[in-house]
């Protein structure tokens, strides 16, 4: 029986830049960084040891040139990949990340599931920074405006 999700992949047009974004701006730690014919690098949230994120180049091994170009186009448009990061202080983390140069599309807003801010990573993908609401979800609460 499956017990846990252990590894997720994000695609990057510049693996080194994405590693720097994740570690320097988001505060992730490098979990592995090895050469296996190509660079294999994973990062994760400090203290959350059961989940890692591998950062894979869009022109990496296993792709023919046409597929690599198509993947690069999708990543560059910001339409491939997104994620949600949970926090216990959305407003505080929003300010800290913004001060580190993270581009936010939406300031913290109240949602039925909690407080959420939306940012872009270095490849243009959207991420949710969410402080989850305690207790039951409040679906009577307005959803607010989507990010521009």
Automatic annotation (TrEMBL):
Gene3D superfamilies: 2,3-Dihydroxybiphenyl 1,2-Dioxygenase, domain 1. Residues 4-132 form the VOC domain. InterPro entries: Glyas_Bleomycin-R_OHBP_Dase (IPR029068), Glyas_Fos-R_dOase_dom (IPR004360), VOC_core (IPR037523). This is VOC family protein.
């Amino acid at each position: 029986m499956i017990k846990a999700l252990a590894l997720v992949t994000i695609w990057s047009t510049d693996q080194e830049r994405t590693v720097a974004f994740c570690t320097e701006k988001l505060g992730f730690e490098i979990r592995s960084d090895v050469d296996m014919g190509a660079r294999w690098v994973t990062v994760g949230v400090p203290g959350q040891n059961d989940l890692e994120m591998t950062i894979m180049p869009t022109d990496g091994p296993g792709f023919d040139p046409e597929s690599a170009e198509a993947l690069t186009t999708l990543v560059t448009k910001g339409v491939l990949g997104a994620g949600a990061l949970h926090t216990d202080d959305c407003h505080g983390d929003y300010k800290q990340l913004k001060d580190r140069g993270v581009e936010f599309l939406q300031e913290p807003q109240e949602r039925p599931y909690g407080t959420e801010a939306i940012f872009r990573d270095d490849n243009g993908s959207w991420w949710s920074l969410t402080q989850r609401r305690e207790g039951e979800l409040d679906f009577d609460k307005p959803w607010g405006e989507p990010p521009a």
